Amino acid sequence: MASRFDLNTPPVAVAAVRPLIEIDRVSKIYQTRDGPVESLKPLTFDIGAGEFMAIVGPSGCGKSTLLKMVGGLLPASAGEIRLDGRRVAGPPDNVGIVFQSSVLLAWRSVLENVMLQIEMRHLPKAQYLPKARALLEMTGLADFANKHPWELSGGMQQRASICRALVHDPAVLLMDEPFGALDAITRTQIRHDLELLWMETRKTVLFITHSIEEAIGLSDRVLVMSPNPGRIVDEIAIDLPRPRPAVLGEDASFNAYAERIHRAFLRMGVIKY
Question: What is the arrangement of strands in the sheet containing 95-98, beginning at the earlier edge strand?
Fold first, then answer.
């Protein structure tokens, strides 16, 4: 896959896979009352079909902005984003998005919340209802299909939001800090659940996170971003067997990857000791 970064260390070689998402010299500048504010330096990289890619970086570095541009929710200031060869000029039909908050409707059941995606897209309900039930089964929510969001834990609510993002069978799943509001134990469990779901569906995933552990624990490849204005400073191919263990720190390779990312943040002054 193409990548053209000014890296501090050489990227690890990754196997050639057909690019599904192409980021071509994409940048973002916000116009404010005080003048233009550069959020993202020009970025160029690809995400292969079926690849799980994580982007890790400090708050305000533009990683969520990048995800929203890939999802067609924000326009790029320059450059072009292509999904399956087509320029992204608005929200594509074959993308599902999961945000930090589950954004479930309190008056609808879990199953009805999942099926909201189908209603909004005016897709045939009878065709997608079995898919919704299958996703709830895969995520351990089958017995909670008729419950309401307020009757679920935070982790269960986020599982429901993942089901909603996948029910129309998109090619791409975009995830913006989806575990950020969860406690540490729940984050570990839902990370494991998400990995198993990805292994089952093999969706192309772009995962935004502040967590080095989550980035390494979930992804095939990690991009490390600098503080604002964001740029890619490192690219790391993660060569760990799947499914990955709950306690990642016991693996020497994991520790080497984590050390590499920590050192990048130290060099940039994001972490100070």
Answer: 95-98, 172-176, 204-209, 52-56, 221-225, 232-237
Spatial CB neighbours of 137, under 8 Å, sequence gap ≥ 6: none
Other CB atoms within 10 A of residue 111 CB: 20
**Number of domains present in the structure of the chain:** 1
- Collapse the DSSP code of 56 into the 3-class scheme (helix H, G, I; strand E, B; otherwise coil) and give the result: strand
The pLDDT value recorded for residue 3 is 39
- How confident is the prediction for the chain on average, in pLDDT? 90
Mean pLDDT over residues 122-131, rounded?
Answer: 95
The answer to whether residue 104 sits within a structural domain is: no
CATH number of 26's domain: 3.40.50.300
CB 67 within 8 A of CB 206: yes
Residue 81 lies in a domain: yes
Query: Is the pTM of the predicted complex or chain greater than 0.85?
Result: yes
Residue 265 in any domain: the answer is yes
Q: What is the pLDDT of residue 155?
A: 92
pLDDT at 16: 55
Distance CA 267, CA 133 (A): 48
- Can you give the length of the chain in residues? 273
Neighbours of 93 (CB within 10 A): 12
Residue 42 lies in a domain: yes
Of 174, 169, 242, 178, nearest to 201 (Cα)?
169
**Band of residue 144 on the pLDDT scale cut at 50, 70, 90:** very high
Q: For residues 107, 108, 109 and 111, what is the CA-based torsion angle, rounded to 10 degrees? A: -170
| Domain region containing 273 | 17-94+203-273
DSSP letter, residue 35: E
Q: What is the pLDDT of residues 216-232, one digit of tens each?
A: 999 999 999 999 999 99
